């Protein structure tokens, strides 16, 4: 049974929207965060590899894989070692910037985009090393906020900053787990200011996340492949 699941997983086509999203972020990070940029390319290569082996006629996936492998081979010699702590630091900075935007600015599509970006980068980090407890909490919180804010926009509801309230009684247990996170404490605002770096300020000013995606174009009340169906939570932690 487990063997069949593994075979089906290898045959399933990766989410190409997400793959292209990651490659776009990789390009944006090339100059200032070359190692994180490389790990994005390596992650995409490994995500596509098994699928292409079993679906070699898929020209789009095959060409994307070949381009990523070629790029990774060119970049890899420039690093003496792969220091995953640098990617972990980037994940934290992306999360703190999203959390700060949520708590201190008007919540917009950009807020969704920022939380979604933090979520994806934590998934990339988890691919290379298991997330620690704090990273796992931040990952789950970013994913929850992405879904929560999008649902609010879909239903013309003003989203609340900080930890979302459960919409239904069956959400209570999940919501309680987020309420326990340290990021929901009042002194978190001080932590955000303390942890904020000059580089983070530059990201907010220059928008490292690139052009805003119009998430409102996704079908209302349906799970978007880009936002909801991209993660196997059992892998995290």
TrEMBL record:
Cellular component terms per the entry's GO annotation: multivesicular body
Record key words, sorted: Membrane
Gene3D superfamilies: Vacuolar protein sorting-associated protein vta1
InterPro entries, per database record: Vta1-like, Vta1/CALS_N, Vta1/CALS_N_sf
Transmembrane segments annotated in the record for this chain: none
Chain residue ranges for the region called Disordered: 158-198
Keyword Membrane tagged: yes
GO biological-process terms attached to the record: late endosome to vacuole transport via multivesicular body sorting pathway
Composition bias, Basic and acidic residues: 186-197
Annotated Pfam families: Vta1 (PF04652)
Residue ranges of domain Vta1/callose synthase N-terminal in the record: 19-154
Compartment(s) where it occurs, according to its Swiss-Prot or TrEMBL record: Endomembrane system
First-listed, main subcellular location of the protein, grouped into a coarse class: membrane
PANTHER family per record: VACUOLAR PROTEIN SORTING-ASSOCIATED PROTEIN VTA1 HOMOLOG
Protein name, UniProt field: Vta1/callose synthase N-terminal domain-containing protein
């Amino acid at each position: 049974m487990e063997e069949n699941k593994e075979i089906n997983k290898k045959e399933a086509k990766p989410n190409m929207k997400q793959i292209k999203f990651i490659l776009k972020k990789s390009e944006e990070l090339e100059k200032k965060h070359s190692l994180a940029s490389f790990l994005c390319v390596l992650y995409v290569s490994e995500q596509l590899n098994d699928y292409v082996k079993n679906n070699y006629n898929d020209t789009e996936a095959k060409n994307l894989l070949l381009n990523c492998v070629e790029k990774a081979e060119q970049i890899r010699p420039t690093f003496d070692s792969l220091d995953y702590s640098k990617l972990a630091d980037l994940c934290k900075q992306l999360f703190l910037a999203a959390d700060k935007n949520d708590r201190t600015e008007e919540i917009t599509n950009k807020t969704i985009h920022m939380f979604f970006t933090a979520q994806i980068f934590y998934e990339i980090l988890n691919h290379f090393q298991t997330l620690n407890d704090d990273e796992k909490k931040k990952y789950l919180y970013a994913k929850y906020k992405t879904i929560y804010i999008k649902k609010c926009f879909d239903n013309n509801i003003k989203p609340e900053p900080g930890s979302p309230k459960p919409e239904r009684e069956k959400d209570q247990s999940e919501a309680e787990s987020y309420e326990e996170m340290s990021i929901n404490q009042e002194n978190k605002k001080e932590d955000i200011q303390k942890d904020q770096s000059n580089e983070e300020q530059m990201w907010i000013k220059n928008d490292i996340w690139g052009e805003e995606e119009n998430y409102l174009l996704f079908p209302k009340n349906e799970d978007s492949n880009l936002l909801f169906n991209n993660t196997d939570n059992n892998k995290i932690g």
